[in-house]
Amino acid sequence: MGAFLHTVKVAHFKKTATFATKIMPTPKTVLIPMLQHIGKACTPTVKVGDTVLKGQLIGDSSEFMSAPIHASTSGKVIAVRDVLMASGVYAPAVEISADGLDTPIETKPIEVNTLEELVSAVRNLGIVGLGGAGFPTSIKLNPKNIDAIDTLIVNATECEPFITADHREILEDPDDIVEGIELLKKLMGISRVIIGIEENKPDAIKLMRKKAEGRFEVESLKSTYPQGAEKVIIYHCTRRRVMEGQLPADVGVVVLNVATLGNIVRGLRTGMPLTHKRVTVSGDCVKEPANVYAPIGARIDELVEFCGGYVKTPTKLIAGGPMMGKSLSNGRHPIIKSNNAVLAISDYLSFSPDPSPCIRCGRCLRACPLSLMPTVFEHAYEEGNFDLLEKQKVSICMECGCCAYVCPAKRPLVQINKLAKSALRSRKK
Ligand code: SF4
Ligand code: SF4
User: Fold this and answer.
1) CA dist 310 → 208, 264, 302 (Å)
2) Residue of 333, 345, 417 whose CA lies nearest to 88
3) Neighbours of 40 (CB within 10 A)
4) Mutation to probe ligand 2, out of 8, 356, 361 (largest number of atoms < 8 A from CB)
5) What is the pLDDT of residues 314-323, one digit of tens each?
6) pLDDT band at 233, cuts 50/70/90?
7) Residue that is last in its domain, among 247, 270, 293
8) DSSP letter at 162?
9) In which domain, by residue range, is 218 found?
10) Average pLDDT across the chain, whole number
């Protein structure tokens, strides 16, 4: 193991980093899916015809891996129906016709004095990983081996091109981050906190170093992708390696996205569940790229409209970043908690030539942060050699796309890895 894991240089396109977040008004309707987290979809707790208030619970689940869903505005429920998610699965969704008043539920600050109280509050607030993962935060804060956790890493790397929502979180709400760090240190009994920020955000690094006052460390990390992947940031901040089958908690670490932390603090301060989030709206097809504080359930077309509209028809609409985001079939998809960006890009940025035969240059192997062998996966998948796929650990591929990004032959390596993982999973069922 070298001093650093393999990462790749990608273009940044982060011009929205310098613009203050704009607050988007509530659209006429919001469509709120019941699956906005890793785990099981929630069941709607409202029906057509019900009136709801902003922040009211509209979906919940008794499953362990879940987080409740709340209305992002006040109004009337006009539909409860299945919708196709960006991930390709169907999930129930609640559509609300906004009454234009945004009347909130009654709330008061939530006091938490123990980890148990914090975990319960975070679940009730509906908070999940906002950096794109959507992992229920209450579960992350409550690992089985809590006594062995000594380090909290606040992930503010934001390594994907275009996305600047976390950067704006630091610049606009730095005191919430500091408050969150202090709270977690106290309630989780954590001695070391590191906030990892890529070096392409010098203003954020400077600000957090000023705020730290010796209470936590600010690590300036190389601006390379995928610096923000959990295994990568953990290694680069602590030199601890999360092995196959392990979780960060197994090496004594909890990793929390910086916006997630900020939203925990704001949720506790106000008592208002998560109903809105900061989303980067960017790409060469958007007239005025910006960071938008948007109601969950607003449609992607509406966010773009709020940013001046489309200047040309996008070839690709993406929920998330260009490396790991999900391509969307149309702009009617709603924003969910785990969306940190919406990109509308033309052929100019998304053109990809047809793949040509592998020239055995080995670049894909050298680019993989996990030292996997994408070329072997491709051959094994084509030959249906599941034993080899398993032996070469295709299941731990994090689908970061570094291998495909550097491939001069433009082999569809990530797509093949995804198919191979899915085939292996079905075979084991
Ligand atoms: S997509 Fe998988 S195989 Fe390719 S670089 Fe990332 S982790 Fe490695
Ligand atoms: S980078 Fe592409 S061309 Fe080079 S070895 Fe890997 S798959 Fe083959």
Assistant:
1) 36, 34, 11
2) 333
3) 15
4) 361
5) 999 999 999 9
6) very high
7) 270
8) S
9) 115-270
10) 95
Question: How distant is the alpha carbon of residue 383 from its chain centre?
Answer: 34
pLDDT recorded at residue 1? 44
Instruction: Quote the number of domains for the chain.
Output: 3
Q: 199 C-alpha to center of ligand 2: Å?
A: 29
CA distance 414 to 406: 12
- Per-residue pLDDT of 102-115, as tens digits, reads 999 999 999 999 99
Report the candidate in 326, 340, 334 with the shortest Cα–Cα distance to residue 299: 334
362: Cβ below 6 Å to ligand 2? yes
> Is residue 97 pLDDT above 80, yes or no?
yes
For the residues 323-345, what does the mean pLDDT come to?
Answer: 94
Is residue 264 in contact with ligand 1, taking CB distance under 6 Å?
no
d(CA 302, CA 146) in angstroms, rounded, equals 43
Is 106 within the bounds of a domain? no
Q: What is the Cα–Cα distance from 37 to 402, expressed in whole angstroms?
A: 25
Largest CA distance in the chain: 63
pLDDT at 2: 53
Q: Is the pLDDT of residue 88 over 90?
A: no
Residues 41 and 28 in one domain: yes
Q: How far is the CA of 14 from the centre of ligand 1 (A)?
A: 24
Q: In the prediction, which pLDDT does 416 show?
A: 94
